[in-house]
Amino acid sequence: MKIFNRLADRYSKIESLPVGTYHLQAIQDNNPFRLHLRLQSNGAGVLIVNASTVLQLNPTAAEYAFHFIKGSQPEEAAKQIAARYRVSKGMALEDYNDFVDHIQTLISTPDLDPFSFLDFTRAAPHSADLTAPLRLDCALTYRLPANTQAEYAPSKRVDRELTTDEWKAIIDKAWQVGIPHITFTGGEATLREDLPMLIAQAEKNGQVCGLLTDGLKLADRKYLDILLQTGLDHILFILQPDMDDSWKALELIMLEDIFVTVHLTISHENVINSEVTMKRLASLGVKSFSMTVVEDSLREAYDTLREKAASLELTLKFDLPVPYSDHNPVAYETQADDNPVGAGKAWLYVEPDGDVLPAQGMANKVLGNFLKDEWETIYS
Fold it and tell me: Residue-wise pLDDT tens for the chain (380 aa)?
C-alpha cells in the first residue's frame, strides 16, 4: 500500500497555475520596466513587456514567466517545472534560464524585433484568442476646453458623466478581468478634477496608465508634477501646431522622464507646414509620433510625411486612441493584409456614462455598460 501511495503521489495530476493577472515593476540597467502576465484557464498566457511588446506563451513558457515575475529562484523554478512536465531538473533549469535571458534582452532593448533576433514566432496582429483586451480607453468626459471646435466631441451622446467612485469601480473591474493598460481620454480628460485620483487607482492596481490630452493644462508644472507623482506612465499629446501654448506645453513635458507620443492630425489648413512641424518635433527630442489625416484626399500627403518622419527618426505609432478619423496609419498599413480587427478585441472604449464601444467613434456598436453588465456579456 505504501508503494501504491508513493506511485499515486508521483503521477497524480499537478494543479494548474492560478488564473489571473500578475505584475512586476522593477529596474534593470537603471531603466524601469513593467511586465504583465495574464494566465488563462488552459495554462497558456499573454506576456506584455512595457505595454508595447505582446508575447503569446504556451503553458510551459507561461510558467517560466510566472516564476520570473514572482521572483522565484532559478533552482526552485526548475524544480517545480521539472515536476509538472516530467523532465529533468537540469533541462528545466537550462530552458528557464534561456527564457529569462530572452525577456531581459527585450527589456533592455525595447526596439528589438523578437522575431528577427530572439527566435520568437511572429503572429498576425490581434490573431490570438484573448480573455480580455490589452487596453481600455476611458473617455472620462466629452467636454472640451473653451474656444475648441466642439463638433469633434459627441457630447450629446451621454446624459451624464460617471462619478469618481464609478470610474474607480471600472478601473478595478478592468484589472480583475485582466486588462493591464488604462488610457484616459475624452473630450479633454484634464477637465476632470479627479483625474489624479483615477491615475492613482490604476497605479495602485499595477496597471500601466496613459493620458490622451491637448496638453494645455500640463503647461502648469505643479499640475504636471501631480500627475507624474500619482503614477502616469505615458502621454499621447495632441499637438495644435498653430498654437504657441501647445508648443510651450510640449516643451515642458519633454523635459520630464515620461514616454511621450505626439499626435498630429493633417488637415488642408496645416498640411503645407507639416514638414516644418515635424522638424520642430524632432528638435525637441520627440521620438514617438502618431499621425492621421482628416480625409482620403490627403493620402498622398500622408505618404510623403511618413517618409519625412522616417528621415527624422520619428517612429510612427499605430493602434493608439486618437481624435476621430477613419484615415489613420493602421488602416493604411494593414488594408491589404486581411488581419483581424483589433477594435473590440485588443482594446475597448468606455464612454463617459459607462457604455462600452469596440473603439472610439464606433457609436453604433454599444457592447454593454461596464458597470451594469457582466463581463462575459460585454466581451463575448
Answer: 343 343 334 444 556 788 999 999 998 878 888 999 999 888 889 998 888 788 888 899 999 999 999 999 999 999 999 988 888 999 999 999 999 998 998 888 766 665 555 556 666 556 667 889 989 999 999 988 876 665 556 666 788 999 999 999 999 999 999 999 999 998 899 999 999 999 999 999 999 999 999 999 999 999 999 999 999 999 999 999 999 999 999 999 999 989 899 999 898 999 999 999 999 999 999 999 998 888 888 888 988 999 999 999 998 886 666 654 555 554 554 444 444 467 788 889 999 999 999 888 787 899 999 999 999 999 98
118's CB contacts (< 8 A; 6+ apart) are: 102, 105, 106, 112
- CB burial string 326-359: b at 16+ within 10 A, e below: ebbbbebebeeeeeeebbbbbbbbbbbbbbbbbb
What is the domain class of 135-378 according to CATH? alpha beta
pTM reported for the whole predicted model: 0.83
What residue spans define the domains of the chain?
2-117, 135-378
Separation of first and last alpha carbons in the chain: 49
Question: What is the number of helices (H) and of strands (E) in the chain?
Answer: 13, 14
Nearest to 318 by CA among 307, 336, 306: 306
